[in-house]
């Protein structure tokens, strides 16, 4: 039967694995959140009515709050990852310092973000929530900057490795293909980090990006996240 063919199709099983992960669900919600941010801005710029804009403003707010609640406690994971990276004896020094900085940045971001949860949910208003939010954005920007440094350094290393490869030999061909895969992954992560950087830097007033640009950049990085997580759950 057609229904059985659809239900037992490998893509359905893959999808179920994907949405069973917290990361998968978060990336889906994030895509909707940032696209709503862009589209609300677009409707406002094209003289959309308040009734047309309201659903997308609500989606942006509610999905943002949902994701904030899903992140509760995740700061511990990044503190542990920072400690693990700091203790690594085999990692390249530049990548090790960048990894520590990235993980501490994300840990600080999630810690300050955690402090704003009750205020954002309307459970208990707190006057310091705005300041905590700004500190969270500063740590997020630091983490992303460290990630950008790591990806640029990785791409430099790959270029150096590629220059030493003899593509006329069998082992050289295999190594060239391996380098190409690693380069593609690094370039994709770099693009994602640069897109994400628009969020904290614009929120802190360091750059003048509007909601439309930030919304599109956030949507792009979210789609990259979906792609990456989809591959991991294959």
From TrEMBL:
Its main location: membrane. Pfam families: PEX11. InterPro entries: PEX11 (IPR008733). It comes from the Eukaryota. Keywords: Membrane, Peroxisome, Peroxisome biogenesis. GO terms for cellular component: peroxisomal membrane. GO terms for biological process: peroxisome fission. It is found in: Peroxisome membrane. This is Peroxisomal biogenesis factor 11. It comes from Pseudomassariella vexata.
